[in-house]
Amino acid sequence: MSEANGNVSATDSTYDQMSLTQLRAGQRGRVVRIIGGRGLACKLEALGIREGEEIRKVSEQWMRGPVLLQHGHSQVALGFGMASRVFVRITGENR
Amino acid sequence: MGNPNVGKSAVFNRLTGANAIVSNYAGTTVEFTKGSMSVAGQNVELVDVPGTYTLDPTNNAERIAVEMLKSREDNDVVLNVVEATNLERSLNLTLQLLKEQAAIVVALSFWDETKHRGISIDAEKLEDILGVPCVPTCAVTGQGISHLVKRIKEAKPSPLQYDEQDKWNQIGNIVDKVQTLTHHHHTLLERLGDASVKPLTGLPIAVTVLFLAFKVIRFIGEGLIGHICEPIFENFWSPIMLMLSSFLGSKGFVHDLVIGQLIEGQIDYGQSFGLLTTGLFVPLGAVLPYVFAFYTVLSFLEDFGYLPRLAIMVDTLMHRLGLHGLAIVPMLLGLGCNVPGVLSTRILETRRERFISVTILAIGVPCAALQAMVVGLVGRHGTANLGIVYGTLFIVWLTLGVLLNCTVRGESPEIFVEIPPYRIPYLRSLSKKIWIRIKWFVKEAVPFVLLGVLLVNILHTLGIIQFVGQLTAPVVTQVLGLPSDAVGALIIGVFRKDVAVGMLVPLGLTAKQLIIASVVLATYFPCVATLTTLVRELGVVDMLKSAGIMIVSSLIVGGLLNLILV
Fold it and tell me: Are B168 and A48 a contacting pair at CB < 8 A?
């Protein structure tokens, strides 16, 4: 995780990017883009979640409920709308 | 200062001996608390600041924290609490504090948890890099606290320099140097934590937890009343009161004020209505056991870390009310007493959210004191009737929330909250917290109950209750189907709702009337303690709006119940 430094190389295409709401529970992904204003990006950055960081989606709820992420040793829940604005590229499955 | 839920208040309590409430979720401290401690023989003031992730505030609690920092004076020291199990994120704030050139001491909290989570931190190396004292601590057990006190005077601004652009790299480098991770297997608590936030397992868990909570509260509450409180009052207090009664001449104004009416020559704590009989029995004999039971269960759930997970599970429902999941926390606190419930709505961001949550809390969330009396009175006529009372209140709460969501202007942001790991509550801090809350209840409630009982007697003697009764009889008897005597309860309900329910006892109401009276008493107006809190939190105008909504809806609901119930 320590080599993560925010560089997204130019060869990466966008087709394998997906929002946190599309990511399945249990999958890991690397944050590539946070869209829509600075507010959300700031909130996430304050928690250490920024472009290049790897996260794991712990769970999601029915009917567009909040998404729970694991980052490092901490977990954070964010609303569906916010989650749909955070894009990641899948890096692995974890049960 | 430090991130939310890193144990700042726990450290604060340890250092000052103060009684700040500590829980296992972010946002327990919404205001700053002051205390004093002694450092090297000198008395110094210590301030417990709400948690913040950054000095670039994104919400109100963070704003308060940043203002506190900016207003510090030259010789003030910042005690930065850093979560050892979350070093990277915590250092983000630490580095920002260092940049402010504040004199800093770092307390590494949750040191005990690092071991079984496979984390090993070299505190000395961290100290070398940051250039400020770094002390491993565990506030609940007190480990490292005395060492921390010794080193407070070594606090100094750090020589560490960094480029804002390069901040996270810098943090990454520091973490790499001081922290080594070893693989650890998922603990049972971690598995349970994940299970309680997945829909398939989380919903059954939520239902089970709430059901068990309800069962345990009733078991403890009824057990205490039946086996301890009632016997004490019946066997020890009644003989003393009877002696006092005959000493006072068994009648007259003073006798009626102190002892109340004797029912067939005996004290009846439900009906006598004297200051030393009903006035003491209501808060101490009938309500306190339930308050104790409630806070025992709630405090356990808080310290275990269940509340934020419950917030996730109910988030979708709360969205219909214009709120998000975290708004369940004030509602649960409100089930104990509405005052701390209303205060804790500060964890919500916007004015709109606060207005909606405060209003539906004051109207649809009955406090433990009211509930204890309702359970005692209505429960006698069968649990089904009790179900109607709770069911109605829930429907009112829900409907009103949906309506307010459609009508109140403003915005409601989405949930954004850190979910702490489950932690086994530490018995000493748990019992301390329950004790703080019980003490607070006794201090707040007993005087008001006595005042309420006093008022009942005076108003009765002066004939005011009877007069208002005749005046409002059309509404009370026609719309609500209650006897005009019940107006007395509505007047006193503004003081204390438990006393008000107590006033229904001698009226001999039918089950239907009891249900209506209970629902109306719960919804029609906040008690005076809640009302003052509403004014403080909402301002006079919004409080009046809120109170207006309450009166109207309780009349509608009471009237409907009168029509529907047989």
Answer: yes
| B3 is a domain residue | no
Domain shared by B227 and B143, yes or no = no
pLDDT tens digits for range B373-429: 999 999 999 999 999 999 999 999 999 999 999 999 998 999 999 999 999 999 988
Taking CA B278 as the corner, what is the angle to CA B273 and CA B279, rounded to the nearest 5 degrees? 100
The domain boundary, picked from B120, B151, B184, lies at B184
Domain contains B194: no
Our count of domains for chain B comes to: 2
Range of the domain at B234: 199-564
User: Are residues B390 and B529 both part of a single domain?
Assistant: yes
From the list A62, A72, A73, the residue facing B199 with the nearest CB is A62
A26, A30, A86, B240, B348 from A34: Cα distances, Å: 21, 12, 5, 72, 24
pLDDT higher than threshold 80 for residue A37: no
SS3 A31: strand
Residue B325, chain A, CB below 8 Å: the answer is yes
Q: Which residue of A lies nearest to B94 if distances are taken between CA atoms?
A: A46
Give ipTM to 2 decimals: 0.88
Q: CA separation (Å) from B392 to B81, B198, B222, B260?
A: 45, 30, 24, 34
Nearest to A78 among B198, B308, B416 (CB): B416
One domain, residues B31 and B177: yes
Reported pTM: 0.92
Q: Give the best-scoring range by mean pLDDT among B107-116, B328-337, B476-485.
A: B328-337
Residue A64 maps to which CATH number? 2.30.30.90
Mutate to test the interface with B, among A38, A47, A57, A78 (most CBs of B within 10 A): A47
Count of structural domains within chain A: 1
Helix (H) or strand (E) holding B108: strand B103-109
CA distance A74 to chain B (A): 7
The CA-to-CA distance between both ends of chain B, in Å, stands at 59
Alpha-carbon Rg for chain A, nearest whole angstrom, is 12
